[in-house]
Amino acid sequence: MPKSTEYEAKIADAQGFIAYDAEEDGVWHDLITRQLPAVRQHMARQYLHGLHLLDMPTDRVPQCPDISARLGDLTGWRVEPVPALIGFGRFFGMLADRTFPAASFIRKRKHFDYIEEPDIFHEIFGHTPLLTDPAFARFSQAIGEAGTRCDKADYSWLIRLYWFSIEFGLIRENGALKALGSGLASSVTELPWSISAGPEHRPFDVIDILRTPYRIDIHQPVYFVIDDLDDLFAAARRDLLADVAEARRLGLHAPKYPPKQAA
Fold this sequence. Notes:
Layout: H1 22-42, H2 45-54, H3 64-74, E1 78-82, H4 88-96, E2 99-103, H5 120-127, H6 134-149, H7 155-167, E3 170-173, E4 176-179, H8 182-185, H9 190-194, E5 200-203, H10 206-210, E6 222-226, H11 229-235, H12 240-250
Parallel strand pairs: 1-2, 3-6, 5-6
Antiparallel strand pairs: 3-4
Helix pairs in contact: 4-6, 6-7
Cofactor: Fe(2+)
Keywords: Iron, Metal-binding, Monooxygenase, Oxidoreductase, Phenylalanine catabolism
EC number: 1.14.16.1
């Protein structure tokens, strides 16, 4: 996430509802209606099934209590509004508590195609469909639990497993590449890029993932492909802190992306 942002958190009322205005509802409508055709074409069936179960509105920004009620019945998870920027410690702690932290603001029109920090479109449209699935929900919780036990110095290592699976993971479905990650579901340009011949596609491997650096402000040059979902769910049963220690011992791979230019 960026170190600073021009966005401010929207404050929920005592029942957890946020008063979005007509402009904000319009941005949500335009984002979701633009993205749905690509999502239906390129996203994995597990994501699409979750999207169907949540039945999000297209004419207004969804409310966290409504999404939480549906998730609660399915997997026991809930969504809680947070400021745009939260630390890794709080992030991992919330996942461990089966709570997904959702930035409460929605992007402005000038950031319609791309916003560096997560907004509620990314959080709700991108993330919550997979949280309807007990196995995916458990995987997210396992990463959170590992994060509550690891040293702060290991946060940046552990988060790579979340980044390259829940955020930007791919899966092979009937021989075809499909997108699984929330960052892909909510991006009009990176979704088709991720499954094209442009980036490198590597097999899902926990240690390899933990050693792979990334940047948040570019399309990923590398994606990890899950051939069997059992491989992903087995990662939730691993000793992830031992995996982080092994990745540290081996060291980071050389980045596949150019260095970020100074502002």
